[in-house]
């Protein structure tokens, strides 16, 4: 496990890089490996895959490793869109016209 001082130095070095905006989302070196139940919860968060893909495409060389999860996220988003459209279409007559 890293010491807190080493982690703070890595975050400060990343934020001081002139070629990158000062944002934790764009700073891969400051992102610690999270394991256990917190890591599982983080992997279930859809924004995690969007943020990591953003990092990999715009700021880092090499392959993009989250394509599968982006496709899953897109498929789930489309399914929820059509489900919501179906529900609101069926309930259109029961909604008030003006609020």
Report on the architecture of this protein.
This protein is mainly α. Helix content is 59%, strand content 0%. The chain contains 4 helices and no strands. The protein has helices at residues 4-15, 36-44, 46-58, 67-90. The radius of gyration is 20 Å and the shape is elongated. The model has no long low-confidence stretch (mean pLDDT 74).
Overall pLDDT confidence: 74
Q: What's the gyration radius in Å?
A: 20 Å
Strand content: under 5%
Number of strands: 0
Q: How would you sum up the global shape?
A: elongated
Structural class: mainly alpha
Q: Please tell me the total number of domains.
A: 1
**Main beta-sheet annotation:** none
List the helices and strands and how they pair.
Elements: H1 4-15, H2 36-44, H3 46-58, H4 67-90
Helix pairs in contact: 3-4
Brief sketch in words of this structure:
59% of the residues lie in helices and 0% in strands.
Features:
99 residues, mainly alpha
């Amino acid at each position: 496990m890293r010491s807190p001082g080493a982690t703070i130095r890595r975050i400060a070095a990343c934020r001081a890089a002139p070629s990158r905006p000062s944002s934790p989302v764009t700073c891969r070196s400051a992102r610690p490996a999270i394991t256990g139940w917190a890591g599982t919860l983080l992997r279930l968060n859809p924004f995690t895959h969007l943020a990591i893909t953003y990092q990999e495409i715009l700021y880092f060389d090499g392959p993009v490793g989250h394509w599968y999860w982006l496709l899953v996220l897109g498929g789930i988003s489309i399914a929820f869109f059509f489900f919501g459209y179906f529900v609101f279409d069926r309930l259109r007559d029961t909604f008030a016209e003006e609020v």
